[in-house]
C-alpha cells in the first residue's frame, strides 16, 4: 500500500527533460567534490561520488557508490541520496532541491555525516552542514578512474549477514517506525517508513552495519537518514541522525524549511508485513491529496 503513494507522486512529477527535471549527469560542489548521477526506474538514482575532503589519508583518491531518489516538482526537483565511505565506517546523507537560479541549475543540499564509534565517543560522531552543486559538462574531468572505485562487492557471507541483521521492523523511542523488507540488489534495500517508501544502501563488516536511506514523505518533502547498527547480546539498536527538506522556490534561502533530528530504533522482529496496520486504499488516496493541498 505504501508504494502506491510513491507511484502516484512520481506520476504527478514528470517534467523529465526540462531544467532540474532531469538531474542525471555530472555535478561539482564548492569544495571540489564530484558526483555522477544516473536515473533508474521509479525515480531512483545511483551513481558515484568522489570527495575532495579527506577524513583519512587517501580518501580523496577513492570513488564511492551513491544511492537515492529524486522527484520532479513544479519549478524544480527534490533529491535525497546517501554515500557510504570506507565500507560504512562513515556515511553521509544529503537532502535538498534543484532549482534554476540566474538561468543555472543548482542543487541546494544539507548533509548529515555519521561515523561508527563505540561509547563514550558517540557525542562527536555527527556533523551537519551544507553543499551547493553546479552541473558540469559530461566531458569535464572529474579526476577519478575506475581503478580507484570502491567495489560494491563483498564476500557473500558478510553481505548476507549484514542484510539479515538489518532486515525487519524497527521502532524508535519517539514512536517512528521502519520496516526494511527486501534487498533488490546487493547492498540496496527497500522498505517503508510509516506510509512512505524508503530506498537505501547498506554496508559494514563483521562487527557493525551502516545504513543510509531516503523517503519521499510527500510531493514536497523528503527525509534522509544516516545510521549505524549497534548490537549487545540479543539487543539491537539502530542509531540514526536525520534531515528533512521541504521544497521552496527561493534562490536566496532555499534551506529555510530544513529540520534535523536523532532517532534510535529498537529491533522489533522480522515480520515480512508492514510495521503499521495496513491502510485502506481510500485512506491512502485521502492522505495523498491532503499532502498535495
Automatic annotation (TrEMBL):
Similarity section: Belongs to the avidin/streptavidin family.
Keywords: Biotin, Disulfide bond, Glycoprotein, Secreted, Signal
Any single Gene Ontology cellular-component annotation: extracellular region
GO molecular function: biotin binding
Protein name in UniProt: Fibropellin-1
Intracellular or extracellular location(s): Secreted
Domain of life of the source: Eukaryota
Signal sequence, start to end: 1-17
Organism expressing this protein natively: Stegodyphus mimosarum (African social velvet spider)
Amino acid at each position: 500500500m505504501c508504494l502506491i503513494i510513491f507511484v502516484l507522486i512520481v506520476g504527478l512529477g514528470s517534467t523529465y527533460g526540462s531544467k532540474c527535471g532531469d538531474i542525471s549527469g555530472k555535478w561539482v560542489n564548492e569544495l571540489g567534490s564530484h558526483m555522477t548521477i544516473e536515473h533508474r526506474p521509479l525515480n531512483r538514482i545511483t551513481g558515484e561520488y568522489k570527495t575532495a575532503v579527506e577524513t583519512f589519508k587517501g580518501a580523496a583518491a577513492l570513488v564511492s557508490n551513491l544511492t537515492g531518489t529524486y522527484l520532479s516538482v513544479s519549478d524544480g526537483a527534490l533529491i535525497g541520496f546517501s554515500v557510504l565511505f570506507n565500507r560504512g565506517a562513515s556515511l553521509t546523507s544529503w537532502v535538498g532541491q534543484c532549482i534554476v537560479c540566474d538561468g543555472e541549475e543548482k542543487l541546494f543540499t544539507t548533509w548529515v555525516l555519521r561515523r561508527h564509534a563505540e561509547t563514550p565517543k558517540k557525542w562527536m560522531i555527527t556533523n551537519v552542514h551544507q553543499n551547493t552543486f553546479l552541473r558540469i559538462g559530461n566531458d569535464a574531468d572529474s579526476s577519478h578512474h575506475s581503478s580507484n572505485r570502491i567495489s560494491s562487492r563483498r564476500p557473500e557471507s558478510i553481505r548476507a549477514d549484514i542484510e539479515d541483521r538489518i532486515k525487519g521492523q524497527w521502532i524508535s523511542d519517539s514512536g517512528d517506525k521502519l520496516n526494511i523488507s527486501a534487498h533488490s540488489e546487493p547492498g540496496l534495500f527497500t522498505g517503508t517508513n510509516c506510509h512512505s517508501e524508503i530506498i537505501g544502501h547498506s554496508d559494514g563488516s563483521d562487527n557493525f552495519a551502516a545504513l543510509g536511506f531516503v523517503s519521499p514523505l510527500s510531493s514536497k518533502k523528503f527525509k534522509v537518514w544516516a545510521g549505524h547498527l549497534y548490537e549487545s547480546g540479543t539487543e539491537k539498536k539502530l542509531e540514526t541522525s536525520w534531515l528533512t527538506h521541504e521544497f521552496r522556490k527561493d534562490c536566496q534561502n532555499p534551506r529555510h524549511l530544513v529540520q534535523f533530528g536523532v532517532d534510535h530504533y529498537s529491533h522489533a522482529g522480522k515480520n515480512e508485513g508492514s510495521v503499521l496496520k495496513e491502510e485502506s486504499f481510500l485512506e491512502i488516496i485521502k492522505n495523498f491529496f491532503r499532502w498535495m493541498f
